[in-house]
What does this fold into?
Amino acid sequence: MTATKELSGEAALPLVVRPSVESDVPAMLAIYEHHIRDGQSDLDAEFMAPDPLRDDDIKRRRKNMLRRRLPHLVAERGGTVVGYAYAVPFRKRPAYRYAVKHSIYVHPDHLHSGIGRALLPMLVEACTQEGFRQMFAYIDATNVASRNLHEAFGFRLVGVLEGVGLKFGRWTDSVLMQRALGPGAGEPPAYSRTT
Ligand SMILES: CC(C)(COP(=O)(O)OP(=O)(O)OC[C@H]1O[C@@H](n2cnc3c(N)ncnc32)[C@H](O)[C@@H]1OP(=O)(O)O)[C@@H](O)C(=O)NCCC(=O)NCCS
It folds into this structure.
């Protein structure tokens, strides 16, 4: 599942997308925390109290996801983690076991340099390979970069959640974007998932 893509700039270092390993967690956490402070993620900075357990928490969650065969990828350039993307169950109830939602984050120093464009299709492919049939993203309605990226990879707008978030004291809207994976709802599942 590893892919390599040549990019211009950044000394033309190759961008490698690969499954994450536990030692990637601190780098992923640093990227995540930046975007929380930035306000376009689904968490509010006011909830970002210093928490030394956060690292372990992410490690535990990552292991849980891997046990459930949910893809968890990083993009690496020149030995530095410059982005990551992962899928989680869309809902916990068994009826929804063929649907995932996902998150994608790119390092603040590497935005709009093709990392999302490399990560997202790899995540779509990995989820398809695992037999999932629908993929969803909840995106802050003002997050044009994410909306454009998802649209470029076959996601379409299926809903607007009005006033669903409270960030920095303001109510915010989210959009829900969806794409089918493989045959989508056109065929029964190829094999049975229990979770
Ligand atoms: C959204 C995000 C993942 C996009 O990744 P990226 O590596 O910056 O995007 P890429 O360089 O691969 O660009 C892919 C496409 O996304 C769109 N895009 C990226 N940055 C954009 C920007 N600043 N404004 C408008 N569109 C943008 C464009 O359609 C772009 O295609 P193009 O290069 O042909 O213009 C990244 O901006 C990010 O991590 N943002 C903060 C965290 C976040 O919002 N995550 C998503 C939560 S749902």
